[in-house]
Design a protein that fits this description.
The protein is α+β, with helices and mostly antiparallel strands. The chain folds into two domains: about 270 residues, no CATH class; about 130 residues, Conserved hypothetical protein from pyrococcus furiosus pfu- 392566-001, domain 2 (2-Layer Sandwich). Helices cover about 30% and strands about 25% of the residues. Strands 1, 4, 5, 6, 8, 9, 10, 11 and 12 form a nine-stranded mixed β-sheet that branches. A six-stranded antiparallel β-sheet has the order 15-17-16-19-14-18, sandwiched between helices. Strand 4 and strand 5 form a beta hairpin. Helix 4 packs parallel to helix 5 and helix 5 crosses helix 8. Pfam families: DUF1015 (PF06245). InterPro entries: UCP033563 (IPR008323).
Length: about 425
Amino acid sequence: MAEILPIKAWRYHEKYSRQMEDLTAPLFDVVSASQREVLYVNPLNSIHLSVPLGVAPAEEAKKTLADWKSRGVISQDQIPGIYVYYQYFRLPGEEKEICRKGFIAQIKAYDWDENVVLRHESTIAKSVNDRVELLRETKLQSSATHGLYEDEDHLLEAYMDKAIEDPIYDLEDYQGVREVLAVIQDASIIKKFVSLIRNKQIILADGHHRYEGAISYRKEMMMQNLTSQGNEAYNFHMMYFTNALDSNLRILPTHRLFLNFDISEGDLLEKLEHYFTIKKLNDVEEIEELILHKQWAFGLIVGENAYKIRLIPEQIDYMPADLPQPVRHLDLMVLHYFLVEKVLGIPLKEQRYSDQIEYERNLRRCLKKVSSSNATFAVITRDIAMQKVMEVCKSGYTMPQKSTYFYPKTLSGLLFASVDEEEFKFPYEMFQ
């Protein structure tokens, strides 16, 4: 089903290899304002391509890219490769180091209705538009989206383990994660990757905005090229692939911040009582423990107080009838329907456009924003199981935006993939 190709990657010149910690950046949708300020100071940091500054940011990125190419800051590999990408990390409270194993390649930017790449969450419209404009101007992808394939036998792992013994980069990132990148350029081995993925559907784990931007760009270019053969550069998109059946996948919760709502704490609680049981907490630190493993339970931070709220079970029967079974009982769908739509009055279909909802992974930053009145209130959520994500994808429906946070995030700037035809060209049929 899924067509992938190795990448003729652009990478920082080897003279910068020891500086990669200072040249890489968090993904565009997770880099904080304070991180940006620090990263922008370095004129060679990849953030100037992924989240450019200026009145016309995409045009600025185009100028930066041309400058870097002319000065040899980045150079292109002339032989395409499959890039093996391992991330070593520990979660709070865990002593054992975890390794998430995967590889980076190019995949055709299949439209959703082709049923090859499956999405699981809605997108935020403005973020998609920004990604399309950047791709249109630079013809470069500065970070890989994250896709999942299913392989019970882990057939590619031995090849990846062998490659990672001779890394291109080995560094520690902003998350405290050890990032290791290697490359496979042996055509006979690349064929095994291409062959295995050819029979798979891909579940998009992270990067919905960037992938949707790639779809839009592909459609735009196909309209301009009526003789399109399907193998042109603009058809492809850089993706990081991991095995969905690997035990080392981790999904963390993403909390909700609600901004600029003219509602008092008392009025909010009164409206919530129609749908939720409410329990006041003595200590905000109790929130995550009290909602853990409890269906339809959330933490609420408003004013100086914290509460546990949990859907009244009988209310589940009032979920919209058109929601398929894998979706209608999900915690976040319950939250977005009963709290965001019913209590706050923002319909499900309009929530992805709302500037009154922000998404935050860190509990303490949620507390800070509420206590400083930068947010009206916050809702603390729990994680979702990988099996649930897969069920939603295969149902053809989507969860609310920012439903999952696959950890760790990939880095921007480790390598770049060009969709410029001259830079893309290669006899890729040798890998089929």
